[in-house]
Write a structure and sequence with these properties.
Elements lengths: L11 E5 L4 H12 L3 E6 L2 H15 L3 E5 L5 H15 L4 E4 L14 H29 L3 E6 L12 H21 L4 E8 L5 H6 L4 H10 L9 H11 L10 E4 L7
Parallel strand pairs: 1-2, 1-4, 2-3, 4-5, 5-6, 6-7
Helix pairs in contact: 1-2, 1-8, 3-4, 4-5
């Protein structure tokens, strides 16, 4: 089959949290592989800008819907609208996420709930809505959760974040078991220190700590955007059909030693 297995022509890929940062990179990569794109986000101006860039670069169909991952009704309606308008949903990438940096003794219930609601419950709600649609379609599918290296190791001032992503990794495994009879593969991608997204937005708060993470990689550098684009496309295509329930580290070898 060769490289044909690495194409997504005729497929529809949904990226939840696809407006900017890693989500935008994933949207563009999936479109370049041939998929039509649906973006769910609350950052609508950025999502529309991303959609226009994708249309211009790839000529693929792109739609944008506003929905908050903390609201089950909003996600359910958005997924149904995408299926109605695009004809199917074949790939879902859950990229929505947030963090709150506080010592555990300073963290409020509201802080904890916000991080868990977006990072973990939102992933569950989005996977459930998408899985129902994929099962109805009867032709399998791919679900990809964007997790983190911090799901494997603790980090200072990130109690809720580490807990939410550790939960996401086991959610990925449990979903893979439930959905295997329907030929739906579920995997996670666990980036280390990348030059995008939450890392870029928060590294200035603890520059010494973030530099220590970079120094622990075997390449002594941050990851580049294209290095997450490739694994996202791979896990979305038939080339990865025998991979499910896995959480793939993308950390430059940081946890190899």
């Amino acid at each position: 089959m060769g490289l044909v297995n690495m194409r997504l022509d005729g497929k529809v890929a949904l990226v939840v949290g696809g407006a900017k940062n890693l989500g935008k990179i994933e949207c563009m990569a999936l479109a370049e592989a041939g998929a039509d794109i649906a973006i769910i986000d609350i950052a609508i101006p950025e999502a529309r800008e991303t959609a226009n860039e994708i249309r211009k670069a790839t000529k693929r169909r792109v739609i944008v819907l506003k929905a908050d991952v903390r609201s089950t009704p909003q996600i359910d309606r958005a997924v149904q609208k995408i299926a109605d308008k695009m004809g199917s949903i074949d790939v879902m990438v859950y990229n929505a996420g947030t963090t709150i940096r506080k010592k555990v003794w300073d963290m409020s219930d509201e802080d904890w709930d916000r991080v868990l609601d977006i990072n973990l419950t939102g992933a569950f709600v989005s996977a459930r809505a998408t899985a129902r649609q994929m099962i109805k379609q009867g032709k399998g599918g791919k679900i990809i959760n964007i997790s983190t290296m911090a799901a494997f190791v603790g980090e200072p001032d990130r109690t809720a974040y580490c807990a939410s992503k550790g939960g996401m990794n086991l959610l990925t495994k449990a979903l893979a078991i439930d959905l295997a009879p329907h030929n739906i593969q579920v995997n996670g991608i666990c980036p280390g220190v990348f030059d995008t997204g939450l890392v870029k937005e928060t590294s200035f708060l603890q520059p010494a700590f973030h530099q220590s993470l970079v120094d622990r990689t075997l390449y002594k550098r941050r990851g580049w955007p294209h290095e997450i684009a490739g694994i996202t496309v791979f896990l979305s295509t038939p080339a990865s059909d025998y991979i499910t329930g896995d959480n793939i580290l993308l950390d430059g070898g940081m946890l190899a030693h």
